[in-house]
Amino acid sequence: MPNIYFDHASTTPLHPEVLSVMMDIYQGPPGNPSSTHSFGRTAKRHLTQARDRIAAVVGCHPSELMFTSGGTESDNTALRGTLNALRHTGKRHLITSSAEHHAVLHTSKRLEEEGYSITLLEPDGDGIISPEKVQNALREDTTMISLLYVNNEVGTIQPIAEIGAVAREAGVLFHVDGVQALGSIRLNLHELPVDLMSFTAHKINGPQGIGALYIAKSVPFQPQIVGGSQEGKRRAGTENTASATGFAKAVELSDEHFEEKNRHISLLRETFIHGLEAELGSSAFVINGHKERSVPHILNISLLGADTETLLMNLDMEGIAASSGSACTSGSLERSHVLKAMSLPPDRLNSAVRFSFGLGNTLKEIEYAVKKIATILNRIRSKV
Ligand SMILES: Cc1ncc(COP(=O)(O)O)c(C=O)c1O
Questions:
Q1: Would the pLDDT of 330 be above 60?
Q2: Distance 70 CA to ligand 1 centre (A)
Q3: CA angle at residue 35 from 31 to 38, to 5 degrees?
Q4: Taking CA 97 as the corner, what is the angle to CA 94 and CA 102, rounded to the nearest 5 degrees?
Q5: Ligand 1, residues 107, 175, 203, 324: which to mutate, most atoms within 8 A of Cβ?
Q6: Mean pLDDT for the stretch of residues 201-210
Q7: CATH class of this structure's domain 16-256
Q8: Secondary element (H or E) of residue 303
């Protein structure tokens, strides 16, 4: 049986070149970047170079990147670090959306319990939050807007530049979760009207457990992890030099192969959709998310007449790994909060499966999966 991985929005395989640069550090001499002796200075050089290389690709100053343990920490810290720093202003209003990743949603919920006021914007049926909606939600006491660049469940790309312009005009900070954008959308942070952006390495064939938070120079920020003076006194704790170096390698590789990778993934996506149309007919399924404003690697499909869990189980038995949505909710019977926020009808909500493609996936795998999906779907439907 094949072993087909269509869950790259959840995590991706480590690129061999990333592993190789990490192994060089793991197998080399020890070194804490804060130590002043030669071992420490070597580690510090690796760390500095990693930060410089990532900054060069995403278009910011290296000092504006703070390494974190991943996207979740970056999101938590972006919200708390800035809102706490601005507490003295008495302004306590945060605008976000009900289709965000749980890292932002759950942090917002906590902040609400601590006395902040949260506005949760509803996306439209394609997952888009319009700049007008953001504009209308602004208040005198709004401090921050936090939105996803690319929705991790449906792949919809938000109009970040336009929303950023609204934020700038109002003098409100703008945090963007760029976890699924890195590698799929070319970024130039200094050209975007964005103040903070979250990243993680493991969605772009880098190691798990490391990410970064872009914090523009002018942004007030209160450290959330205190202790030593690491990361420009913004995040205490000995840095993960090997992972930071692996992250930098992954960012460079994704930049170098950007066009080729996205062309290949778009071809996989189109072949998948056309294959399903040929096998099942176009009325048998619906693609969730925006038709044009979407990244190619995330394809969320409702296979009408079947149930998500049954589909995932049957796919798994055929050697195909897909997901019901975000990694945090996969494995549970909870319906996707993103699809609910998009107000999808029950038949689409209950039959949605996310296929997400990446490096290593082939057309042969797509053709196999399409055939299996058709067989599975016909079997399930014949039982109803
Ligand atoms: C959009 C988005 N934000 C944040 C995260 C969390 O990132 P991490 O797994 O690195 O904590 C994820 C991961 O699923 C994500 O897709």
A1: no
A2: 7
A3: 65
A4: 95
A5: 203
A6: 98
A7: alpha beta
A8: strand 298-303
Do the bridges between strand 352-356 and strand 298-303 make them parallel or antiparallel, or are there none, so unpaired? antiparallel
- Listed residue (313, 314, 283, 303) closest to 351, CA to CA: 303
Q: How long is the chain?
A: 384
- 60: annotated active-site residue: no
What six digits make up the tokens of 170?
A: 């109002």
Residue 73: name the closest of 197, 248, 213, 172 by CA: 213
DSSP state of 312: H
Q: Rounded to an integer, what distance in angstroms lies between the CA atom of residue 340 and that of residue 174?
A: 25
pLDDT at 333: 55
H or E element that contains 362? none
DSSP string, 224-284: SB-SS-HHHHTB-S---HHHHHHHHHHHHHHHHTHHHHHHHHHHHHHHHHHHHHHHH-GGG
pLDDT tens digits, residue range 85-120? 999 999 999 999 999 999 999 999 999 999 999 999
Q: What is the CA radius of gyration of the chain?
A: 21
212-265 pLDDT, tens digit per residue, is 999 999 999 999 999 999 999 999 999 999 999 999 999 999 999 999 999 999
For the domain spanning 4-12+257-383, the CATH number is: 3.90.1150.10
Rounded CA separation 313/322 (Å): 9
pLDDT tens column, 265-314:
999 999 999 999 999 999 999 999 999 999 999 999 999 999 999 999 99
Asked if 184 and 157 count as a contact pair (C-beta separation under 8 A), the reply is: no
Residue 123 predicted with pLDDT over 50:
yes
Going from the Cα of 218 to the center of ligand 1, the distance in angstroms, rounded, reads 26
Helices 258-280 and 363-383: crossing angle in degrees, nearest 10, is 30
Going from N- to C-terminal start, the domains of the chain cover 4-12+257-383, 16-256
The Å distance, Cα 198 to ligand 1 centre, comes to: 9
